[in-house]
Every structure is written in C-alpha cells, then in structure tokens.
Amino acid sequence: MTDNLKTRCEKSFYSELYHFEETSQGLLIDNTTGRIYLKKILETYDINVYEWLKGHSDPHIPRVHSFWEEDGRLVVLEEYIQGETLEEKLSKGLSDKSEKLRIIMEVCDALSFLHNAPIPIIHRDIKASNIMLTNDGVVKLIDYDAAKTFHAGKKSDTALIGTVGSAAPEQYGFRQSDARTDIYSLGILIKELFPDDKRFAKIINKATQMEPGFRYQNTQELKRALTDAAGISKKKSHIWIVVIICTIAYMAIAGIIVVLLLRHFTNVTK
User: Which of 18, 90, 109, 111 is the most core-located residue (most Cβ within 10 A)?
Assistant: First the structure.
C-alpha cells in the first residue's frame, strides 16, 4: 500500500467533533476506537520531531498519534489534554510556591526526555501558555510548532522562531539552538513564577546568561540547583535522621525489654 493510499484510508477513520476558530485546531474522534484526538495543522514544523515523538512517550509530553503532510502543511493528531494552561492558572491567582516548584521540576523532566533523544529535540518556546496541567494535576509540555532537532556542526537555526521576552539570544540567528536555549526560557519562567524569591535569584541569573556556556548545561544541573535552593534535599536528610534515631531508640528499648524478660524468667526457674 502506497503512503498516499494509506493516509487516505487512515483519514477515513476520523470524524470532526469540534473546530476551534481562534486556533484553527479541532477535535476528531476515531470511529474505530472511540478515542478523541486534537488535530493541529502546522505551517512551520520539523517532521523529525513528530516522527520521534510518535514512537516514544513520556508522562509529561502529549502523545502523538499520527501525522501526515498535506498541501505543504503538517496535519498532527495528538493526545487531547483536558485541563488548564499554567498561564490560566496564574491569571486566577496561583500562589502556592510548592505547587509552582513542582510544575517547574516536571517541566525539567519533560525537557530531559526531549534533550536526551538520540537526536536532541529543542522545544524553543517554553512559556506559561505552553504548559498544561491536566485535571489530575499532571504537567504536560505542549506545542511543538517551534521545536527542532539539534544537529552538531550547524552554525545557526534556519528558522527564527520563539516568543519575544522568553526566547534565548541564539534564537535570533546568532547560533544554533541547543538544550541551553530551553534552559534560558525556563529561567525566564522561573523569574515569572518567583519574582521576589531570593532563593532562586542566582539560579535565574545563571540560567538566563547571554552566553550559553555560562548557563546550566543541562536540565539535570538546573533541577539540582532548584532542589538545593528550595532545601528539599536538606528536608529529606532531616527526615532520614529522625527515622534513624527513632529506629535506634526503638531497638534499644526492645533490647532492654528482652533483657528484663530473660532475667525475670531466669529468676522464676530458679
């Protein structure tokens, strides 16, 4: 079966449920399975990104179900996520710092998944409106319209894409985007979530350096820095210390009880 015939056959499986006028996206139902997918039509895209995402999944990345090229554009069917964007949450007054930190940590996990692909995938548009929180509270990094694969040796990006204010300097044509490009944008997001929190001031400063070599080199480094600044590791170590002390105390008490019981029974037998 040729690719065109295969695509025409697959397209016949779907029926449109809803069309979002403001985004030109829609909801489709697979008549063979009853599953609902989000349909996106992309003018600018890197097909290699969608080829890899279709074959690999992560809890923090929308699953790509299918895609095909049509009239010079890419039609993508992906997991339909029910929830709200981080931007919407913030507009409603999200103030819980621990929840904000959890979201950032899970975005780091999503980026680690992308950056550690055999050919690293760079999102290039990290911002609050591209982060979804499902109704179950799971963080999802969405919208891969600007995403590209990283190719060693290239001096700059062929397409200059990103959001003004959060895009890294290299996205304006100075050099090729890489994992540190997403770290820059993530630093801007951390600043937005924690504008007056001195714990993260140095982290924000390092993440948003103009020169990529001076930033965190990967999301694992950034995540460790956030963990240390928030005192999460210290809290965990304190908990373990308490657990160890309590365990030793219980063992000592149990030992004393055993000794007393042995003496008691020894005296009785005499």
Answer: 111
Encode pLDDT of 26-43 as tens digits: 999 999 999 999 999 999
Structure tokens at 166: 């959060």
Q: Indicate which residues carry an active-site annotation.
A: 125
Terminal-residue alpha carbon distance, the chain: 94
Q: What is the pTM of this model?
A: 0.80
Long-range contacts of residues 180-183, Cβ cutoff 8 Å, at least 24 apart: 180/212, 180/215, 180/216, 180/217, 181/122, 181/124, 181/212, 182/111, 182/114, 182/115, 182/122, 182/123, 182/124, 182/126, 182/219, 183/111, 183/207, 183/215, 183/216, 183/218, 183/219, 183/222
Residue of 157 and 16 predicted with greater confidence = 16
CA-wise closest residue to 157 among 125, 198, 116: 125
d(CA 100, CA 8): 44
